[in-house]
Amino acid sequence: MAQGFNITASDKYSKSYEEALRLVSKMSGGKLSVVRDLFNRIVFSYLIGNDDMHLKNISLIRKEDNRTFYYDGLTPNYDQLFASSFDISSVIGFLALDLLEEEKHAEYTECYQKYGFYTAYDFTLLGKRAGLPQAAVQSVFKHYFSIEKEMQTMIERSFMPDIMKKRAVVILLDRFKALKIRA
After folding, report:
1. Is residue 3 part of a domain?
2. Residue 130: is its pLDDT beyond 90?
3. Where are the alpha helices (DSSP H) in the chain?
4. Cα–Cα dist 78/75, whole Å
5. Residue 5 to residue 27: CA distance in whole angstroms
6. What domain range includes position 34?
7. Inter-axis angle of helices 134-146 and 148-156, nearest 10
8. Of 53, 115, 116, 151, which residue is most buried, by most CB within 10 angstroms?
9. Which pLDDT score, from 0 to 100, does residue 89 have?
10. Residue 54 CB partners (closer than 8 Å, separation 6+)
11. Cα(52)–Cα(58) distance, rounded to whole angstroms?
């Protein structure tokens, strides 16, 4: 995505996910499936406390037989970590990039101002601005709500050190609570 924005690697945090979603839409010829895929990855990053999904960690791919100017989809997801569970303080925030464009100017939604974190309201607004139908946004939430317990179990059975497991579970459960707040 850094190349798509024509920016250098040092500016990999300079855009918002809203801008990234719009660029993905443009570069994929308006394919909502590709936009939904990136939206899904943003929600996933939020849930697991991954504050490292910057522009260099989002890539598009064109199939070998594609003769158009547009990309077919996103490359496989990589560099997804429970970064917030490490024993370091993140200076970035909840996510690597601002969720919405106006956050670059310290303007946040009323929900964010009220609670101090992103909620379903913020992500729903992001999806709407990205051109996703309400049903597509809700299906992403519904999917994660349906596997909440499995995600927690996966963490608990992982090979992470116990202290990281505990932090990861707390982050996950807190973020699930946040995604249940609609206004």
Report:
1. no
2. yes
3. 17-27, 32-48, 110-115, 120-129, 134-146, 148-156, 162-179
4. 9
5. 11
6. 9-179
7. 40
8. 53
9. 52
10. 12, 13, 96, 97
11. 11
**The residue type at 170:** V
**Which tokens hold the place of 50?**
């991954």
pLDDT, position 102:
97
Number of domains into which the chain is organized = 1
The model's confidence at residue 88, banded by pLDDT at 50, 70 and 90, is: low
Cβ–Cβ under 8 Å, residues 55 and 20:
yes
Q: Give Cα 35 to chain centroid, integer Å.
A: 11
List the CATH number of the domain containing 44: 1.10.1070
pTM: 0.93
Q: What is the largest CA-CA distance in the chain?
A: 50
Share of the chain above pLDDT 90, in %: 85
Count CA atoms closer than 13 A to 13's CA, side-chain side: 12
Q: Which residue has the higher pLDDT, 62 or 81?
A: 62
